[in-house]
């Protein structure tokens, strides 16, 4: 039923819980699991000299977040795809779903920034409304 599962992760405990649940579902249905981290920080205010260092630091942090989520799944390296992207999390997640035919999104109910989520509307809430496939929200 769920052959292609996407689990967006942001490093929060909620997203790690979602990665665990996504791995369990992937095991049950012998499905493919992809962990996605979207770097959403803007580098527009940085100087040119700062830019390369800023990009490297954000990529390293994104890779660390993906590795922590991967470790939480308990799956083998060849059983999980890890993707790192840059942009607006909602747009990137929906684009990823459209381009890769995911039939389930599993994500945390809250991210790292509850205040920002209240002001802008949480990513998980907006994905639930806009996604073309089922979305499972995990606390």
Task: Briefly summarize what is shown.
It is globular and about 50 Å long.
Spatially, the strands of the biggest sheet line up as: 3-2-1-4-5
Q: Which parts are unreliable, with pLDDT below 50 for 5 consecutive residues or more?
A: 117-121
The CATH topology is given as: Rossmann fold
Number of E-state strands: 5
| Whole-number tally of structural domains | 1
Report the radius of gyration as a whole number of Å.
15 Å
Supply the CATH architecture.
Answer: 3-Layer(aba) Sandwich
Share in helix: 40-55%
Highest-level CATH class: Alpha Beta
What proportion strand? Answer: 15-25%
Order of helices and strands: EHEHEHEHHE
Report mean pLDDT, rounded to a whole number. Answer: 89
Q: Could you please describe the fold and organization of this structure?
A:
With 139 residues, this protein is α/β, with parallel strands linked by helices. It has one domain (4-138): Rossmann fold (3-Layer(aba) Sandwich), CATH 3.40.50. The chain is 50% helix and 21% strand. The chain contains 5 helices and 5 strands, in the order βαβαβαβααβ. It has helices at residues 13-29, 48-73, 89-100, 114-120, 123-130; strands at residues 4-8, 32-39, 80-86, 104-108, 135-138. A 5-stranded parallel β-sheet has the order 3-2-1-4-5, with helices on both faces. Helix 1 (13-29) packs across helix 2 and helix 3 runs parallel beside helix 5 (123-130). The protein starts with a strand and ends with a strand.
Please write out the topology:
Blueprint: E1 4-8, H1 13-29, E2 32-39, H2 48-73, E3 80-86, H3 89-100, E4 104-108, H4 114-120, H5 123-130, E5 135-138
Parallel strand pairs: 1-2, 1-4, 2-3, 4-5
């Amino acid at each position: 039923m769920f052959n292609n599962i996407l689990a967006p992760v942001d490093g929060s405990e909620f997203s790690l819980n979602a990665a665990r649940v996504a791995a369990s579902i992937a095991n049950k249905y012998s499905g493919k699991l992809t962990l996605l981290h979207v770097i959403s920080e803007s580098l527009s205010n940085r100087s040119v000299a700062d830019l390369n260092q800023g990009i490297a630091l954000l990529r390293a942090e994104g890779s660390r977040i993906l590795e922590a989520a991967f470790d939480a799944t308990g799956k083998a390296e060849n059983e999980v795809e890890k993707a790192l992207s840059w942009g607006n999390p909602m747009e990137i997640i929906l684009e990823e779903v459209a381009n890769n035919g995911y039939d389930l999104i599993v994500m945390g109910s809250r991210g790292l920034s509850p205040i920002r989520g209240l002001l802008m509307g949480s990513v998980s809430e907006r994905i639930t409304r806009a996604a073309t496939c089922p979305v499972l929200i995990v606390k």
